[in-house]
Amino acid sequence: MARIALVLGHELEDRLLADIVEHGHVVVARLVSARELLGSIDALAPEVVLVGAGRATLGRDLLAACDERGVRVVALAANDLDRHHARHVGLLEVVDATAGWDEVEPLVQGGAAVAEAPRGPATRRGTVLAVWGPTGAPGRTTLAVNLAAAYAHAGRSVALVDADAYGGAVAPQLGLLDAAPGFAAACRLAGSDALDQGELDRLAQHHTAPGGSFRVLSGLAGTRRWPELAADRVAAVLEALRGWVDVVVVDTGFCLERDEELSTDVFAPRRNAATVAAVEVADRTVAVGQADAVGLARLVRGYADLLEFTEASRVRPVVNRVRASVLGLDPGGQARHALQRLAGISDATLLPDDRRGADAALLAARPLLEVAPRSPLATGVRGLAERLSPSAAAPPRRRRGLLARA
Ligand SMILES: Nc1ncnc2c1ncn2[C@@H]1O[C@H](COP(=O)(O)OP(=O)(O)O)[C@@H](O)[C@H]1O
Ligand SMILES: [Mg+2]
Question: Which ligand is nearest to the CA of 164?
Fold first, then answer.
């Protein structure tokens, strides 16, 4: 039984009403506009809102208000334009307006009965790895994508999450549809306590490769998505993911400042929450910096900030693009020496500058580990994967089928 508010228009309403009631639901309101609902949502306290998927009724205000209160939204689309609009505002729970109630009911159930709904036991406790790095494009996404590939190649089930609210780039690096709002949608569902493995499976895209496929939750398409990234939601999504796969790799933003310290407006978009939450949840965090004077200085400063959110023993410093042209003779030794002197870091992993390999991967829109598996950077990333989680990086005893384990 769910408390349902209808914002559908009379024709649809008339067609569905009998079925709604017959299924034991309570219709708390029959409204004609989103504005009406926004004005009375607290008084009505619906658990589910059934709304027309058109521009006139389905808007971001409505979604935000419902998210805030944990109300599930299911939209009915009359045509392709409606469907496109719903997708554009990030709603995936869309059913054809001509569909029978039997198609709507599962979506209504999915949200309303969350607390009682069988979620299936989370049998795994996968490892969560965050990839963080300071401003200046030190290679966070490159490492995240290739670490995911490395564990997938070793036979593990892997989910790669794009949690960078400053221009996430996982989807383009993998040639995936950027508009698919997987991660933001997962956060939205976590906010209404409606995230289960079935939903995760539905929201994830697949990167498919013969050597090892993995799942991808991408897509913070714009500012409208930030409010969905509240820290508790991000943490809930990552915890759900680790119940589902062996390894969760999270590509994060660069900024570790707490949003609330940047703004006194409690409703201001939270842009950094995802990064902070990912680092807090992660078993290990890669802190990657560029191998030049500016990049190393930024890494040292950021490393200190990072330790406000996690312990040093959980952080693996990485210096990327190590090359003699910016550090002189023995560039690796120079980088190590600088980190030791400035931050007391003695165990950094060094990764070589590998423009050829990195470009080939970008051109092919595939992980470097697939495009040029023997390139210097690919070799370096495999070593990093092993240091981060030796058990997850160990080759399987027997290769399983594509995506078979997840
Ligand atoms: N080791 C490397 N050698 C050469 N180019 C690299 C290396 N690592 C990353 N790059 C390149 O640097 C650029 C920025 O990398 P990216 O992973 O997008 O950074 P970030 O996610 O930190 O902004 C990309 O063009 C990428 O191909
Ligand atoms: Mg990036």
Answer: 2
